[in-house]
Each structure stands twice: as structure tokens, then as C-alpha cells.
């Protein structure tokens, strides 16, 4: 079965793509142009009522929300590719903890930076310097906690690469490659080593070849 | 083994408490007074570097982030109490999808309403009418999508109660019981029936007995 992934150009769908590559699952991509509003088209809203990407179709099964999809893929294809969930219930618990930290603590400020630095002019709203400053301060504090954590274990959930690390790839890539803020990673020794490790995985290099919206 | 749950008065820890009751797991609670800043005390920050509740200790094992903890408990105590994860990988996928919808779409606006309507004066910041209005509009749109979903299945992930429903209990309780906004639930027939169903579970009634911070 080939998994269909909608919206491959964008950051959240790339969480799904890199997970599928790690799990050695065949997939095809379905372009969705957010700048043309294709995610608000009635046919798409029937599949994803909130009008956002990614969305996958795995045969008759439809699923949305990137972090739900990567959990599903890691579980369904448990016996192949990289184990992304840890080996025990306790390790899985820590994977879940750091996935939640990514979603609740890391993502909101980095998403604000991406929106206000990279997308404001394309999407036609004014970039807000106050939001940029506050978000950068918040993200810095989160990265300080990551630095402490990564001084004790190679990856976030322990000494194994997992969904928790993988989930950071797309937005951190924007920070490093497109936003002139690589120093936020490089100023923190253990975060920097972690980033080199995870961003040099062949899976991520393959996903970058799918391109970006700008 | 008795699980220790830190911060039982507050909404996010109540996700954990109701999960433990559903799973028939013995627990004890450890009070943390956020209004006195106990979550920023160095001893607490050693356990939870972001300074938030809940946190659990299950023997030597420490875990934080409420939605990570409920996944861990539902998995570890799979063979007892209510099954909260569905019966198949596909059902679990939908549980994850709606847990993510709760975290990403439902929680941000309802959390803003709780902060600006219930906690602003206690926490000493000005309540912002614009944030209240925008958040209420956003929450209304999310609840419209829930209404459509719940017209087709009894619970969010399907015809079975799961972590996805459970995760909505604490903040929706604030909306209905403390904020004078019960009409947002009652104006939507299927959401209203769903709320009656989940909020009348004996587990939730027991958790309400732990009290609230005001």
C-alpha cells in the first residue's frame, strides 16, 4: 500500500515525510497550494475540516495532524525501518513527553518566528517586531532547557533517536537555513551537536529534496 | 505502586487524575500552589524544568506533560480499567488525531478564555476583551466542527470513549461551570449530548472532589 501525503512543500507535512522515509514506507505526495487557498476548498475540507496540512490516506484510512500521523506510522510499521518509539513503555513515555514539549513549548514561538519573518509578506499581513522579539526570547529559554537535557542524553527522550527528535526537524530547518538565526542553535554546544546529528540523517536530506514553498 | 500526581487543583493535572481513575490505578496527590510560585521553586524545577504541572512519579520514573502522562498510563495499565486507546492501530490513530485537535485547536482559545476571564485578576494582569472575543470566535468554529463530527460518531475518535474525549474534561468544565459560557456547548445538540455523557462519568465526578484553585 502506498501512503498518500498531502502538502509536501510545507513544514508540518515534512514531519510525516521524514517519518515515512525512516520507516521505509512507500508514499506519494499530493500538492496542496496554501498560498492559492487550496486547503480551504470544499473537497479538501471534507477530508480535513480544519483546513490544514498534512493529511494522509493509507488505503481507505484518512488521518490528519502531523504528530498523530507520525505516531500512527511508527506504530503500524513497527517491525520495519528505524524504531522511533523506544523499546519500553517507559521509553515511549519519554518520547511522548518530549513530543509534547515540542508541540507545547518549542513550536508556538518558532511558529511565530516563521510566520512573522518568512511568511508575513507572502501572506499579506504586517510582520510584528514585538512578536518576533518575544518569541525569540521564549524560544531561547526553551533551548536552554534542551541544552541541559542534551548534556545528559544524546537525544531528547534518551540515547535513541525518536519521534521527539524527528518532530523538530522542519521548523528548526527554517530557523537555521532561512531565517538567519542559526546562532540560536550554534551558541548551545549540545543543541548544536544534536542538530548536526539529526539534520544529517539521510531521511531528512531526502525530504529536503521535496522543496519548500519559497 | 502508588502514582504521585503533583498539582491536583489545576486543570491540566485533572487530565491525569481522571485517567488514573478510569484505569483503576491507585494514586496520591502532592499539592503545588501556583499562586505562591511553588512551580518555580528550584526543587520543583529539577523535576520539571519548564515549571509547570502536572508531573507524576511512578516509583523511580518521573514524567511530565499531561497528554504524555495519560498516554503512558493508558498504555502501562492497558489490561485494567477502561480501554482509552481503541482496539486497533487505526482506532488508536484516530484517538491521537483528536488528542492533537484538542491540543492544537481546542486548547489555545479555551485556555485564553480561562486566563482572561477566570485568572487575570488573581494573577495580576489586565483581562483583554479583544483576546476574549477572538478566542470565543475561534472556539466556536472548533465546536462547529465537533458538532459535525459528533453527529456521526458518539465520541470524537469513534463509538468508544477515549483519551481524546477525556482530555477535554477539565477546561470544558471551566467553560460550563465557572465562566457563564455553557451556551457554547448547549447551542450545539451533539456537542451537548457528548458533554453530558463524558462529564457524568463517575471518574470525572470523583476528580471534581479534589477541588479547584478558587
From TrEMBL, chains A, B:
Q: Name one GO biological process term.
A: glutathione metabolic process
Q: Where is the GST N-terminal domain?
A: 1-81
Q: What is its EC number?
A: 2.5.1.18
Q: Which GO terms describe its cellular component?
A: cytosol
The listed locations are: Cytoplasm, Cytosol
SUPFAM superfamilies in the record: GST C-terminal domain-like (SSF47616), Thioredoxin-like (SSF52833)
Would you identify the family this protein belongs to, as annotated? Belongs to the GST superfamily. Phi family.
**Domain GST C-terminal spans what residues?**
88-214
Organism, scientific name: Malus baccata (Siberian crab apple)
Return the InterPro entries for the record.
Glutathione-S-Trfase_C-like, Glutathione-S-Trfase_C_sf, Glutathione_S-Trfase, Glutathione_S-Trfase_N, GST_C, GST_Phi_C, Thioredoxin-like_sf
* Family annotation (PROSITE patterns): GST_CTER, GST_NTER
- Name used for this protein in its record: glutathione transferase
Catalysed reaction equations from the record: RX + glutathione = an S-substituted glutathione + a halide anion + H(+)
Q: Name one Pfam family in it.
A: GST_N
List the keywords (alphabetical): Cytoplasm, Detoxification, Transferase
Look at the named UniProt entry and state the broad enzyme category this protein falls under.
transferase
GO molecular function: any one?
glutathione transferase activity
